[in-house]
Amino acid sequence: MDVEIVSVEVIKPSQPTPPNLKTHQFSIIDQYVPHTYGPFLFFYSPPVPADKNDPSQTLTLLKSSLSEALTLFYPFAGRIKDDHHIDCSDDGVKFVHARVLYRTLSQALCPPLNPYQMRQLFPTEHTV
Questions:
Q1: Helix and strand tally (H, E) in the chain?
Q2: Domain total for the chain?
Q3: pLDDT of the chain along its 128 residues, tens only?
Q4: Count of other CB atoms within 10 angstroms of residue 12
Q5: What is the CB neighbour count within 10 angstroms for residue 86?
Q6: Is the four-CA dihedral 44, 48, 53, 54 of positive or negative sign?
Q7: CATH number of the structural domain spanning residue 119
Q8: 40 and 121 Cβ atoms separated by less than 8 Å
Q9: What is the pLDDT of residue 46?
Q10: DSSP-assigned beta bridge partners for residue 24
Q11: Among the four residues 49, 88, 94, 123, which has the most C-beta atoms within 10 Å?
């Protein structure tokens, strides 16, 4: 499977976090759970009828929606400060647009991908 990274950018919240919410305190349970990285993959086909060579409308909608969601869930756009707090500094989240070459979505996902193939779809610094 050939994966091409089209673009990488940071999506920031559409509105800044209010000053009184800049520091988010972990719950007592969260303070004792080890910090883990939880990457997400979203697979989508372009809406019909769409120009297969220009997914810009879908990408614009995804980025805009993510930016709006980060405004509501402001800790996700911050950084872990210590074992007790998140600095809700509106740093944003990494958005990677990648393309699996020479395959349709159904061809890329069936049969199910093996762990090596799945590893190719995650950012290199956080592979499992």
A1: 4, 5
A2: 1
A3: 777 888 889 999 999 999 898 899 988 888 888 767 667 777 776 666 555 556 677 888 889 999 999 999 988 888 888 878 889 888 899 888 887 777 777 777 777 777 777 777 776 664 43
A4: 16
A5: 20
A6: negative
A7: 3.30.559.10
A8: no
A9: 60
A10: 86
A11: 88
Residue in 35, 3, 34 with CA at minimum distance from that of residue 119: 3
Contact indicator for 93, 66 with CB cutoff of 8 Å: yes
Tokens, residue 51: 């120009």
User: Domain of 70?
Assistant: 3-126
Class of residue 108 by CB neighbours under 10 A (exposed 0-12, middle 13-18, buried 19+): middle
How far apart are the C-alpha atoms of 12 and 27, rounded to whole Å?
Answer: 25
As a whole number of Å, the end-to-end CA separation of the chain is: 18
Instruction: Extract the tokens encoding 112.
Output: 């199910």
Helix then strand then coil, in percent of the chain rounded to 5, is 35, 20, 50
Which residue is it, tokens 């061809």?
107
> For 1-128, where are the E strands, in sequence order?
3-11, 23-25, 79-80, 85-87, 93-100
